[in-house]
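Example S7 (C-alpha cells).
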C-alpha cells in the first residue's frame, strides 16, 4: 500500500501551501501569520475544534472519527524558521531579509495540514486525532510551552508522534530507532575577566584571549578523556568574542557553545567537568571565569512499542526495504522530546534526498516528500485508531 490516492491528488495544493510558508518565514514564538493560516485552514477543513494560543502561538486542531469512542493520538509539526539569509534563488524564496525556512518546518506544517484535510474529509477511524502545530522549535522551547499550557491533559492525548525531514536520507525512505534518537543539548556561556592593557606590555595584563583559547582547547579533553569512549558526547564552542583593536589586550572575553549527550549520566558528567575545566583553566592564568550552564532540550527518547508501530506504518507507505528501523542516533536536538517525556510515541526521519543540509542557506524542503510524509500521517492515525 504505497501513497494514499487522495493524498496524491492533494500534492499540488499542499505544495502551494508549503511554498507560501516558505516565502513568509517567521521566528520563534512570533509565528503569527503562519499560525493564523493554519487556524484558517483547519477551520475550513471542518475540524471539530481549532484552538489557537496554546503555548503562546501554538495551534491545536481536533478531528473526531466517525467510529466513535477510542483513544486520542497527537500528530505534531513545527512552524518556525531560522535567522539566516536565504541563498537559493527559488521563485518562492524568503520575502523577509535575514529569515529563512532552512529546517523544512514549512514542509512539516504543510504536510500535517494536508493530513488534517484528509482526516477531516474521511474520518475513517475511532477516537480522535489531535494535530499539533508548535512555535519556537529552533531554540525557544515551544513544545515545552505547549506542554506547560496543559495541552496533553486538555485534549486527552494518549500517544504522540513527530516527523522531521532529513537531507542525506534518500527520497522515499524513512529512518527511526527505539530509545535515544536525538541528543540533549545544554548551553554554555563563559564570561572571562582578565586585566586589560597595552599589547606591548603583556606582563602587566591578564590576557583574556589567551585564557579563552586555552579554555576552548581544554574543553576538548572532557569528551576525549572524561567521557567513556563507548558513550556519545559533543562539546562545541561556537562563539568567541574578545577585543576591538590589534594593540589592546582585552579585559573581557566571552565564549558560547553547546554540550550534547544521549544519556543522563553523561549529561551530568559534562556539566561537572566543563565547570571544573573552565574555572581551573582561568585560575591557572590568574583570570576569573563565570560559567552559565543552561539546561536545554532533553534527549528524544522513542518508546519501544510506538516506534515498532511507526516503522510498520512507514513500511506500508514506502516499502519494506525503505525503512531503516535501527538508524544510529544523531547529536542534533529537538524539542519534541518534551512531548515524548509526557506520553509514549515516536519521532521519525523522512528522507529529503540529496539536498543542502539543514540550516544551510541553500537548503530547501523537497516537495516530493509531501505525498510520502502526508500518507504516513494519515495511515498512522487510521491504524492507531482502527477501533
Ligand atoms: Zn532546525
Ligand atoms: Zn527542524
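Recovered sequence:
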Amino acid at each position: 500500500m504505497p501513497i494514499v490516492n487522495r493524498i496524491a491528488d492533494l500534492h499540488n495544493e499542499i505544495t502551494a501551501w508549503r511554498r507560501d510558508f516558505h516565502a513568509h518565514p517567521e521566528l520563534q514564538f512570533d509565528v503569527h501569520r503562519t499560525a493564523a493560516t493554519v487556524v484558517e485552514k483547519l477551520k475550513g477543513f471542518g475540524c471539530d475544534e481549532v484552538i489557537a494560543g496554546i503555548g503562546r502561538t501554538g495551534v491545536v486542531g481536533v478531528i473526531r472519527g466517525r467510529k466513535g469512542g477510542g483513544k486520542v493520538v497527537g500528530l505534531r509539526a513545527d512552524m518556525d524558521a531560522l535567522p539566516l539569509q536565504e541563498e537559493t534563488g527559488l521563485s518562492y524564496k524568503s520575502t523577509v531579509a535575514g529569515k529563512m525556512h532552512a529546517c523544512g518546518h514549512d514542509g512539516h506544517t504543510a504536510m500535517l495540514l494536508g493530513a488534517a484535510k484528509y482526516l477531516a474529509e474521511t474520518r475513517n477511524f475511532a477516537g480522535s486525532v489531535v494535530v499539533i502545530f508548535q512555535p519556537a522549535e529552533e531554540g525557544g522551547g515551544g513544545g515545552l510551552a505547549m506542554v506547560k499550557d496543559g495541552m496533553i491533559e486538555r485534549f486527552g492525548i494518549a500517544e504522540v508522534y513527530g516527523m522531521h525531514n532529513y537531507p542525506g536520507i534518500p527520497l522515499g525512505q524513512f529512518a527511526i530507532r527505539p530509545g535515544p534518537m536525538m541528543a540533549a543539548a545544554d548551553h554554555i556561556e563563559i564570561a572571562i575577566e582578565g586585566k586589560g592593557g597595552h599589547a606591548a606590555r603583556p606582563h602587566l595584563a591578564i590576557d583574556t584571549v589567551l585564557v579563552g583559547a586555552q579554555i576552548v582547547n581544554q574543553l576538548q579533553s572532557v569528551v576525549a578523556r572524561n567521557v567513556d569512549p563507548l558513550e556519545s558526547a559533543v562539546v562545541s564552542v561556537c562563539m568567541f568574542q574578545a577585543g576591538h583593536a590589534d594593540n589592546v589586550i582585552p579585559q573581557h572575553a566571552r565564549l558560547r557553545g553547546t554540550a550534547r549527550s544521549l544519556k543522563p549520566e553523561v549529561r551530568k558528567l559534562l556539566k561537572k567537568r566543563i565547570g571544573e575545566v573552565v574555572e581551573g583553566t582561568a585560575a591557572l592564568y590568574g583570570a576569573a571565569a563565570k560559567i552559565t550552564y543552561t539546561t536545554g532540550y532533553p534527549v528524544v527518547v522513542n518508546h519501544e512499542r510506538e516506534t515498532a508501530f511507526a516503522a510498520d506504518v512507514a513500511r506500508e507507505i514506502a516499502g519494506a526495504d525503505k525503512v531503516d528501523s535501527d538508524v544510529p542516533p544523531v547529536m542534533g536536538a529537538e524539542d519534541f522530546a518534551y512531548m515524548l517525556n509526557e506520553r509514549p510515541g515516536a519521532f521519525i526521519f523522512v528522507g529529503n534526498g540529496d539536498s543542502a543540509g539543514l540550516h544551510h542557506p541553500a537548503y530547501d524542503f523537497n516537495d516530493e516528500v509531501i505525498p510520502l510524509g502526508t500518507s504516513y500521517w494519515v495511515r498512522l492515525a487510521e491504524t492507531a485508531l482502527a477501533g
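Notes on this example. The longest strand covers residues 184-193.
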